[in-house]
Design a protein that fits this description.
This protein is an alpha/beta fold. The chain is built from twelve helices and ten strands. The strands form two sheets. It has a six-stranded mixed sheet, with helices on both faces. The protein has a four-stranded antiparallel sheet with strand order 2-1-4-5, with helices on one face. It has one domain: 3-Layer(aba) Sandwich (Rossmann fold).
């Protein structure tokens, strides 16, 4: 089966910079997967997100080498409005994406630019708002909503375009714990119930272990590791080197192992940690 996302030897430098933001990155993603992208600040995570929808290099200019293909579309050969029908991008600050007077106008905006029939726009609008739990918010002003609600409106805007791939760059970084949980549950349902391919950039490792099938680790513009959450968070030396803290339960297990306690596998969930510690205690 053809991957839905492909990167082939992608290197990119912003204008007037000597150091590349991305260095020779290659990977592919199968349709329907939930992929987390992690790494320290300045690793190139946001730049990678902008590659998927063609903003890099079209909007930011700069020098790009290699190839990015999303849903069969080469991002260098297709205009951003064409790519927007296949990949949707949600950034960490939802306010920067919301500019209309009402939620209805906000969610309908992208569909209107595609020239879709009025009834089709109405259908997509209602379905998108219902999915994110904001059906009664059509006449509300986006700027008057809470941070979590604004982020869900931004997701609805992307969802109304019916893309196959959703890219989310730190969507919970400015939210409180309740808002973060609500937004992450919407994202998880997009993947689980609608089969959308999700690419999530996050610093919250607990979200990674709960939702992701696969983890891409970036450091200094390079892809340094690619594996399952369990494979990634079991590598204490790698995590220390790139300054990434593992989930709390994994960190505790790694420290216990350093103290000589015979922990054979590193837990990545609270349930696993409780089970493993009980086994050690009984033994």
């Amino acid at each position: 089966m053809q991957p839905i996302v492909e990167l082939h030897n992608v290197t990119y430098s912003y204008p007037n910079t000597e150091k590349p933001a991305l260095k020779d990155i290659s990977f592919s993603i199968e349709a329907g997967k939930f992929v987390a992208v992690i790494g320290p600040t300045g690793a190139g995570k946001s730049t990678l997100c902008y590659c998927f929808n063609g903003a890099v290099p079209r909007l930011f200019s700069g020098d790009m080498q290699g190839q990015v293909i999303v849903s069969g579309c080469d991002t260098y050969e297709n205009e951003i409005p064409v790519l927007a029908q296949h990949v949707g991008l949600v950034v960490q600050n939802a306010r920067s994406q919301l500019f209309n007077v009402t939620v209805r106008e906000e969610v309908a905006f992208g569909c209107e630019n595609l020239g879709l029939p009025r009834e089709e726009i109405r259908r997509r609008l209602q379905e998108a708002l219902a999915f994110v739990g904001l059906s009664d918010f059509e006449d509300r002003e986006p700027t008057a909503l809470s941070g979590g609600q604004q982020q869900r409106v931004a997701i609805a805007c992307v969802l109304a375009m019916e893309p196959e791939v959703l890219v989310l760059d730190e969507p919970t970084s400015e939210l409180d714990p309740i808002g973060s949980e609500q937004v992450m549950e919407v994202i998880a349902r997009l993947n689980r119930d609608l089969g959308k391919t999700v690419i999530l950039v996050t610093h919250d490792m607990d979200f990674v272990t709960r939702y992701a099938d696969r983890v891409l680790v970036l450091s200094d513009g390079s892809l340094v590791e690619d594996g399952s959450p369990r494979e990634i968070f079991s590598q204490a030396d790698l995590l220390k080197k790139i300054r990434i803290r593992p989930p709390q339960v994994s960190e505790i297990a790694l420290r216990l192992r350093e103290c000589g306690i015979p922990i054979t596998s590193i837990p990545i969930t609270l349930e696993e940690a409780a089970r493993d510690l009980e086994r050690l205690h009984n033994g």
